[in-house]
Fold:
Amino acid sequence: MRPSFARLAPLLTAFALALYSQAVPAQGDTVTTPPFVTTPPEVVDRMLALAGTLPSDYVVDLGSGDGRIVIAAAKKFGARGLGLELDPKLVAESRVNASAAGVADKAQFAVQDVLRADFSKATVVTAYLLPWLMAQLSPIFLDSLRPGARIVTHAFVFPSWRPDRVEKVRLAVPHPSQGDESTIYLWVVPANSRGFWQAASPEGKWSLRIDQNFQEVDVEATLAGAPLKIANARLEGDRLSLSGTLRGAPFAFRGRVEGSRIAGEAELGADKRITPLVFTK
Ligand SMILES: C[S@@+](CC[C@H](N)C(=O)[O-])C[C@H]1O[C@@H](n2cnc3c(N)ncnc32)[C@H](O)[C@@H]1O
Structure:
């Protein structure tokens, strides 16, 4: 007989809590450094692919261990990269590994605490770190990475930031912490689009009121005082897209959030008339 989830649930909950209490330092506890456990090669490849890594990217692995993610980014994706690692022995080993792989010019390593490092130039960030460290890193990511930067993590998530994509990777060889399947997560750093925005066009005055929680946006819009019915509102990095109806006719907007302006174009009516719009605060 297959065990029912209802019967297994208390056991699973107890197991999850036991793991979690080890991972999250309580007040006054000594903070444990995430141990050196490697990401399997097939997971490394999927993480870099999930980030859409290109030769133009600058990949930073936080807690880089033996350097495998930064080395794979250079060797298989042609990207430059930097691994930040607390343990000097692992940094020395990473440099040897990068030379052996023929990518020492592209894959660099430094002994550094990720909580004190400046990785604001990264376009792709990877991490396989414990939840308490992930929790401390999420505000740093939001403040310092440019909108559109991709963050890919192995196994661990941010406490309240919903991932943009989740993928499961079957493992060729069972992993000591992940078993026979790893989960990887993608987050795209959102621009700050929150606030009240206005624009003008021959059709009249436009207004947008945007409420934002990470990449999730709630938008109220009007044109010449008439409310637009927004059916879809999406923010991915600095790209804002809206669609819905205006007085029963289709309406869409695609634009980029560029600091204190949102520039783009609206598509109006059945004839899909294009109107350039620049919203300011
Ligand atoms: C789970 S291993 C991941 C290694 C590698 N990124 C991978 O995925 O195979 C975590 C690594 O982070 C390093 N680490 C832990 N805390 C760190 C910190 N605050 N700053 C830099 N490195 C850290 C550990 O020494 C360890 O090598």
